[in-house]
Amino acid sequence: KSVQNLIYREMQADVLFPSIPSTFCFSWFTLSERSPSCPDFSSLSLFSGSFFLATYNVNGQPPKESLAPWLSCSTSPPDVYCVGFQELDLSKEAFFFNDTPREPEWMRAVSEALHPDAKYALVKLVRLVGIMLLVYVKREHAEFLSEVEAETVGTGIMGRMGNKGAVAIRFHFHNSDVCVVNSHLAAHIEEYERRNQDYRDICSRLQFRLLDLSRPPLNIMKHNVVLWVGDLNYRISDLDVDQVKELITKNDYETLHNYDQLKRQLDEEAVFEGFIEGEIQFQPTYKYDTGSNDWDTSEKCRAPAWCDRILWRGKNITQSSYQSHMTLKTSDHKPVSSLLQIGIKVVNEEAYKKKFEEIVRTIDKMENECIPSVTLSRRELHFQDVKYMEHHTESLTLYNDGQVPCQFEFIKKLDEPTYSKPWLTANPPKGFLAQGAEVDIDLEVFVNRATAPDLNLGLEQIEDILVLHLERGKDYFLSVSGNYLSSCYGTPITTLCQLREPIRDMPLPTVRALVGGRLVSHCDQTIASIQENPEVGEKPLGIPKEIWMMVDHLFRNAIKQEDLFQQPGLRSEFQEIRDYLDTGVPDSLPGSNHSVAEALLLFLESLPEPVVPYSLYQQCLDCCSSPMLCKKVISKLPQCHKNVFDYLAAFLRELLKNSEHNHLDVNILGENGRNSTAAGQNLYSLYRLFCERLQFRTAKRSYLS
Q: From the CB of residue 486, how many other CB atoms can be counted at a distance below 10 Å?
């Protein structure tokens, strides 16, 4: 019965399980070989649906003109509208609280500008800070849409903030699955690698949770059709501004396109693999003087670029138009649109029902005849030199050597809450395997701030046993082992103050002795344990040397750095910084200023006991409205924690002194403090207090957490 239900779901959704072929199609061809009487696929036909895709970076402006020249430019009304906006609101309130009046304003402007010859229904709206996506469908098609879901993912500072990232909407249209993505990638001409990384992060992290919990989450690429719009921010390289404008004047877009960063990355298959972009026959859409069609005349004089793009992925798709719309002058970008004709699969319900019943009868017979069986390519997996916040993957192949399809799943062991330790995941954790088919299963080890403390102290090892269960079959056991390289990330402040050498140079028993062989909730108890330990002969450091190295680097090199703590660093550079802090190699701190700033935030976030200890949380809540009481709370901090707090506050003061250059203010620094530490709202209140005192020299007002 379970196999019948699984096939039914697969036939309805026509969605692939991760890493395996379509269950319905594979099973059907297998059965056709066994039974010549099985009918063909006459139940499926194609309906040509017109999809109007549109993208517009509005630079934080409200709608000032009709959008009809953009959204109603096609001669006949499209079946589906997919409209994406970027930089909907550039205010700090939108960034911090994700609330903006621009959303209803632009939504109303879009609704009024849809094609006048048809009636449309809103399918879904999703927004992340200033990135918004709206999907409309003709009312006569609305009944054929189902399984509508929306998700967001931020790729800004610390890889999380929503100033950059993507929003997406997926839906089931007739018998095809469609995913629409609107993204805003990293800016600046030299940051194309960061844009590539943003794309990869969006693809890996954006997953749709389906209402049917028995089905695994769907990522972007598990859809029949993927439509991608947005301000991708890829620029034109190797030409100066005058050369770019000269080619535009000549309408020589083909030559100019050869210098386009996105085209080069597509040719190298570095991003958007499998996607198609239509031929560009319009001038670059960025950057213009607002309210005109004149190129940027500001001091920076940005070079023109095709920042705003539309791509697609899937079969039976043709493009009817791809154009910019120069008449709209609200923003420093020009909107772009594309009209696609997409072959949507439609099911003949009567033929479908007949085929389904025949398949179920044949599957029933196969189930009664055979027991599921699989072969595993390996049963022991070893992860060498696991590091903090670094993905490590080992794969195995599962081959169905039995006579029937089988359903597999990793199941939890007795008295354990999940099928694996929290640092280990399997992808896919369950699935369906047709006869003679195979699937690759990736086992991934990833140590984060929740799992690092016990691993740093040797209280937990990279060891686990996974149980792979076959429905109506036997269990298979997989052994997972490895070694973890200790890190200052996830190590208590009090312990780090005792370590004068890099943590990787210290014997594990010595590190464990510094916290009495276990993590202690109250820092004062930890200090007492350290002081009573005869093995500790030197006076502790005032603050962890790792914090000093990062703050000192930023003080000397980045005190006037624009967008510090707002622009994210590179993941590869964070790994180099982490290794330097853990080993002392090379001789100086590597990485860009932005990467060092993000590494500092991640360090504070990883602390098992935050700068403001958990034991003082209630006092923080009780006194957060009074600056004087907040000072008293600070005085109660354990000495090493107070040193760190004072040191960071002094650094914040220096940053604020140079706000004219780095464009930082109290709100930005306070928000990063709140998002980078486990202390949450309470530490945020104290950071705000310090920042306000340091900038305005008054403490007369109340500060709410």
A: 22
